[in-house]
Amino acid sequence: MIQALRGMKDILPSDNERFIYIIETASRIAKRYGYDYIETPLLEETSLFKRSVGESSDIVGKEMYQFIDKGGHDVCLRPEGTAGVVRAFIQNKLDKKGGIHRFYYHGPMFRYERPQKGRLREFHQFGCESFGEPSVFEDFTMILMIKDIFDTLGIGYTIKINSLGCPECMPGYREKLIEHLHDIRDGLCEDCQRRIETNPIRVLDCKVDSCQALLKVSPVIVENLCESCDSDFNTLIGLMKSHKLPFELDPKLVRGLDYYTRTAFEFVSSEIGAQSAIAGGGRYNRLVEFLGGKPTPAVGFALGIERIMELVEMPEKGRQGLYLGFMEPEAIGTILELAHRKRQSETVHTEYGKKSLKAHLKAADRLGAKRIGIIGEDEMKAGEIWIKDLETKEEKRIAIDQFD
Fold it and tell me: At what angle do helices 136-153 and 13-32 cross, to 10 degrees?
């Protein structure tokens, strides 16, 4: 028997209602904030992610589904959504048009990592990207959008925030951090020792307990910010406090991608085991330029749909739709005609086989239908249909041409 690949999961009818509800809720809220839908290919050139996510990142170094296609091109399945949206932004010359451009997207991403609860090799994200607005108020507004999404879905959270500085203040901090990391090098894991030379900021993101213990006294970026970054970060903190958002400062929050600058944030939940990120993002003012576009300020986020599936409070839903069936085979044509007409305004379930009334009622109940319509021998002779409301239990016979 052929089975789904490890880390790849079917979304069955038992889960798809929740899955669709998350996407529709997030999309509706993003539209209210002025975001338009964008869709980018699942397959991109590998160089796109090497230049954006960073060759020193685990995503590029260990986790990408990468291969050479039949045309000899080095390609990969997208491991995250931002880089593809930035590529589309540049390719379609939106960077040269100026103004503000805001996009939302959703779809599958792929990373070859160890599957675990809420973390798969094929997973789905919802994300937003804003281009052209340099103000920290845009960062905060994006945080408010995520808040609205999670509040609507009934998910509790805490927000972690940090600043990653800019090209003016980051180099000085980087030198201080490298000096400290060399002092504790022997106690760090193999990955962290390698990152000292390739991307020392990523050491702060290490999840190994022994490394985190050594990093407790490491220099922090928020104490080394330039005047502009410090002003923006203090403004963000003030906004978080004035709106009474549940947040904490996390000087070790660097995110897993190399393109972030200034604001970085994560929404974390303690309802899925240890505190785990359920959404995250930040500002990436240099990424458009890195990928060959005109320098453009930008900020974005993504949330993991599988990560929050079990946390979502679904709204109560009563019975919905109509079930149509017959007790005389000659009525099948009428049932099909009625079903097609009624499907213009509601969900209709049809039964093509002859069944007893009891069997039809059981089938309609199993499907959660609100109403059932049956044509039996008497109804067929009279040109009528028997209707029952399965919530109120009211039943009646009406002429087929009057059935609305």
Answer: 140
The SS3 call for residue 322 is strand
Question: Would you tell me the crossing angle of helices 227-242 and 136-153 to the nearest 10 degrees?
Answer: 30
- Over residues 350-384, the pLDDT tens digits come to 988 888 999 999 999 999 999 999 999 999 899 99
Rg (CA), the chain: 27
Q: Which of 306, 298, 272 is nearest to 23 (CA)?
A: 306
Angle at 248 between CA 113 and CA 102, to 5 degrees: 65
Tokens at 278, concatenated = 């359920």
Domain 13-169+225-311, classified CATH 3.10.290.10, yes or no: no
- The reply to whether 322-402 shares the fold of 13-169+225-311 is no
Residue with tokens 């000085």, as numbered in its chain? 172
For 67, the 3-state DSSP assignment is strand
- Is the alpha carbon torsion for 162, 53, 44, 111 positive or negative? negative
d(CA 42, CA 75): 10
Other Cβ atoms within 10 Å of 314 Cβ, number: 11
Is 289 in contact with 340 (CB distance < 8 Å)? Answer: no
Provide the residue count of the chain.
404
pLDDT one-digit tens code per residue, 297-341: 999 999 999 999 989 988 888 899 999 999 989 999 999 999 999
Alpha helices, DSSP H, located in 348-392: 357-367, 377-382
For residue 13, which amino acid is it?
Answer: P
The encoded tokens of residue 41 equal: 């290919």
For residues 330-366, one letter each, b for 16 or more C-beta atoms within 10 angstroms of the residue's C-beta and e for the rest, the string is ebbebbeebbeebeeeeebbbbeeebeeeebbebbee
Q: Is the distance from CB of 221 to CB of 165 less than 8 angstroms?
A: yes
Give me the CATH code for the 322-402 domain, please.
Answer: 3.40.50.800
| 77, 112 contact by CB (below 8 A) | no
Q: Which residue ranges make up each domain of the chain?
A: 13-169+225-311, 322-402
Q: Could you tell me the pTM of the whole model?
A: 0.87
